[in-house]
Amino acid sequence: MLNWIALFLVRYLIEYHYYEPGRAERALPALQTARYDVLGASLTSIIYVAIGFILFTYFLLWRSTIGYELRLTGSNPEAARYVGVSSVKVVFLNFFIGGLAAGLAGASQVLGRPPAWTIYKTLGNVINLGFNGIGVALIGRNNPVGIIFSAIFLGILLYGARFMQYQGIDPDLTVAINGIIVVSLSLPELYILIKRFVAGGR
Amino acid sequence: MIGTPLLVIVLYVLGFFGIEPIHILETSFMAMTPLILAAIGETLNERSGIVNIGLEGIFLITSVTGVYLAEVTGNGIGGIILGGALIGALIGFFFGLISTYGRAAQVIAGMGLNLIGLGLVPFLMMAFWAFPGIHIFDPDLRIKTIDIIIGDHVFRLSPITLLAVICVILIDVLLYRTLLGIRIQAAGEKPEALDVAGLNVNLTRLLASTICGGLTGIGGAFMPLGWFGGLVKEITAGRGFIALAATVFSGLDPILAAISSFIFGFSEGLAFTFMVTPGVKEAVPYYFVNMIPYIVTILALAFIGSKRFPKALGKPYIRE
Asked: For residues B29 and B222, is the Cβ–Cβ distance under 8 A?
């Protein structure tokens, strides 16, 4: 829901306030002083921000009291309530960190992405980030190290999608592949189930 | 109740500003059709204990297959039945399969279904018609609307809208007054009771999920064929999630779900009409008008209070 409200709000802001005269398809590029240093081909030092955020979340979730309460509420809400964890605090912290992460992700696409350093009017470079991020978290089994690897994996998939386009295949197919991975990951012990089914049980 | 007089008053007041009430109602009825179908399908689904948040994915896929099968069969109704209801029922069947026998985490599987739909739609459009982004099909394939002449306005009502209303009554009767409906409710509230009675819980849930998929599929195929007349990537515009909101907002009662869908469809009708009415068009920027349905949905959800959900919702039933 907020997705679409944000979409329209951003399009409004781009069209009415942040437009670049002469270029209709994107907004103003970021200021020179605001851009992150370019390290390699398209890589900028904003990846340090991403790694820093992963470390921050790791320490928050696994090495602090409030993080422990968060994880407890997730795995056993009844026990959390019994122990006295304030569910209001947990919910707020939850949304706060989530919003923090999403905001960092969105900003990194603008401040850390040469050569454009801006948002396109169709929001093409940010539009599926959120949903793909859910897939990354699931493939990474909600674990920081796993998420790093699965993010690299999905990044490779998405980058390869651009080359698929030269063969005539729509690049959005990688989103569908991400979805298929997510669906198959939601099935626990799929192999055991299939083995049991084939052996004649149910 | 208070709803209808309130609606009449709102429409009369809006009429003063030059906004056509007939146009609002017409668009509202069109907008509420997919919402109603998905909402009552999901009501049935959640009553049986499966939560399917992948409605948006089903909408997306069936909108594309609906148009394709309409072109293949040469007939709009064929497209709705084959491309919409049948494909939707298949997707619902597979989702039910992995939720019951596969013991999947239903929320995650639903999100995955959404992703599959999001990714598959542009791909299918390229694959079917070799043209990215948009597809306008033969106007003969559209579902003919029933035109009612009121004064000097023409009120276009689609037969699928009537079908949706009939489905609401059918599902209501099914759920509350038939034996199958009681069993579906039992599968959601206390599946152990159903199992002790000797009935198959998983099959009951599977049936509910298939019906939900079929109804949602009709709604999905309706959007290009019966309403918009063309197909774009963003044709569903999050309506699957709005239908979910309508289901939750109504506390899993089919009639209330239909009424909530009408409210959300009305906000869409309002937004559409604001966009085309000459006086209002310049006053309110196009983007804020488009936000109206989603803001209404969030506000509605913020005020639900506590609604009861079936006790076994979302939990796969495993026989000990």
From this structure: no
Give pLDDT tens digits for B86-105: 999 999 999 998 888 877 77
Mean pLDDT of B53-68: 92
Q: Where are the alpha helices (DSSP H) in A112-143?
A: 129-139
Domain ranges of chain A: 1-120, 128-202
Q: Which residues of B251-277 are buried (b: 16+ CB within 10 A; e: fewer)?
A: bbbbebbbbbbbbbbbbbbbbbbbeeb
Indicate the domain borders of chain B: 36-149+159-262
Count of C-beta atoms within a 10 Å radius of residue B34: 33
CA distance A183 to chain B (A): 5
Backbone angles phi, psi at B26, to 5 degrees: -60, -50
B241 has a chain A CB within 8 A of its CB: yes
- What residues of A are in the B interface, CB distance below 8 Å? 1-5, 8-9, 11-12, 15-16, 128, 131-132, 134-135, 138, 168-170, 172-190, 193, 202
Global ipTM: 0.78
- Summarised one tens digit per residue, pLDDT across range A11-30 is 777 777 777 677 666 777 77
**B291·A176 Cβ contact <8 A:** no
